[in-house]
Amino acid sequence: MIESNELRSEDVFLKVKHSIEESQTAFSLPQSFYGDEKIHHADMQSIFLNDWLFIANECELPDPGDYITLTIDTAPILILRDSDNILRAFHNTCRHRGSILCKKEKGHVNKLVCPYHQWTYDLDGTLKNALYMAEDFNKDNFPLNPIPLECLEGLIYICLSDSPPDFTLFRETVTPYIKPHQPKKTKVVFESVIVEEANWKLVIENNRECYHCAGSHPELLVSLVEMALPEDDRFAEEFALMKEKAAKWEKLGFPYEPADGGQEFRCIRLPFRKDIKSMTLDGELACKKLLGDLVEEDLGSVRMFRAPNNWHHFLSDHILHFRVLPLGPNKTEVRTTWLVHEEALEGWDYDLQRLSEVWLATNEQDKELAENNQKGILSPAYQPGPYSAISEFMVINFTDWYKNKLKNYLENHS
To answer: Are residues 276 and 189 part of one domain?
Structure first.
């Protein structure tokens, strides 16, 4: 794992430890968690360089030699499909003097050639050619540094730790929910990348509640039911609808009850509003060709979240993936991808504007909410406020998860 000695210094350790002790359960975090450079550095070391992160979709790398790159904190990452059709992740840095290997965000290569001194690697990371080195130089000692990678039904996760957390429970728990939608047999047809001037935790917190939805998301609420649990009876009409849909899903063999992911992940199938089939402005399908082998048009959506950086919606006709990456204490990148059946035809099965307009609007609204939240938190008058146990229980789960991760890391590395 990439690790900095900075986090081990006494002043940083005490700063983070004091901030955790200062925080209250079921209250928003102290101000330092949302902008302090030392806390941000601790976040990177303890979480983003130490846990599983959603990166991309397998279908974005369809052929051997296809690659994508990204940077997590200070770590340049390279993900590619090798000659044996295996997906691999490497640190995107040459073993000679550290130069970046692939400079583009995406592309195709037959070999990996360092642009600095032309050291050449096969797609499996083995060093094949290094000119003018000493006679006793052994190429086998200098392969690219690999990164643990897991594929979950078409979703690519990586972990920058040499000892990544167990992925098994997450995989086995959520697979039955998302497998019927066959994400492996999809293609990305639209992508949005926005930068929010807000701490990454505010972006996640905003996603973890729909307390704000009625006042901010008219497009989304055409389809989305605000209830977060099957037994949520605050919305009488939707509660009755949930019972009706649950009976149909049981006949189809589709799980819908909340998965037991503790504070780490969440997966659940919830209905749309009455007579709504998809996340569109009119509630009709966004893509006429349903995913995989599905024939039922109204399946609601499987809502899946995994801390720290991703949430997803799996519908009957399309899939939405959201990826969050911190760019600094007060800056966060949010990438959204829209996927449809791999054989769906643009202009016949789907229209890009119609497919994307609801979440393009929603993302912009959430951007403004998170940025306003960030500005307000930086005020000298800010004090942590209480979360709603009814409407913000998922935010409480997330902040508890976050503080526990930070605390455990500090205890193990102090």
So the answer is: yes
Residue where a domain stops, chosen among 133, 152, 171 = 152
Same domain, 146 and 185: no
Strand partners, 323: 310, 335
Contact 197, 369 (CB under 8 A): no
Residue from 375, 340, 366, 365 nearest 59 by CA: 340
Structural domain includes residue 183: yes
User: What is the distance between the alpha carbons of residues 294 and 279, in angstroms, rounded to a whole number?
Assistant: 17
Contact 396, 389 (CB under 8 A): yes
pLDDT of residue 7: 54
Burial (CB < 10 A; 0-12, 13-18, 19+), residue 389, is: exposed
**pTM beyond 0.85, yes or no:** yes
Backbone angles phi, psi at 383, to 5 degrees: -135, 140
Q: What is the DSSP string of 351-374?
A: -HHHHHHHHHHHHHHHHHHHHHHH
Is position 130 within any domain? yes
> Three-state DSSP class for 101?
coil
Give the pLDDT confidence of 209-239 residue by residue, as tens digits. 999 999 999 999 999 987 677 777 677 777 7
Our count of domains for the chain comes to: 2
pLDDT beyond 60 at 31: yes
Which tokens hold the place of 152?
A: 């979950």
* Phi/psi of residue 210, nearest 5 degrees: -115, 20
Write the CB contacts of 268 (distance below 8 Å, at least 6 apart in sequence).
177, 228, 229, 230, 256, 257, 258, 259, 302, 303
CA of 102: how far to CAs of 120, 184, 325, in Å? Answer: 12, 26, 20
Asked whether the predicted pLDDT for residue 6 surpasses 60, the reply is no
Average pLDDT of the segment spanning 38-59: 96
Span 252-299, pLDDT tens digits = 999 999 999 999 999 999 999 999 999 999 999 999 999 999 999 999
Q: How confident is the model at residue 111 (pLDDT cuts 50, 70, 90)?
A: very high
Q: What's the CA gap between 211 and 332, in Å, rounded?
A: 22
Question: Are both 140 and 288 inside the same structural domain?
Answer: no
Cis, peptide link before residue 176, omega less than 30° from 0: no
Give the C-alpha separation, 332 to 361, whole Å.
18
- Max intra-chain CA distance, the chain: 78
User: Which residue range forms the structural domain that includes residue 132?
Assistant: 53-152
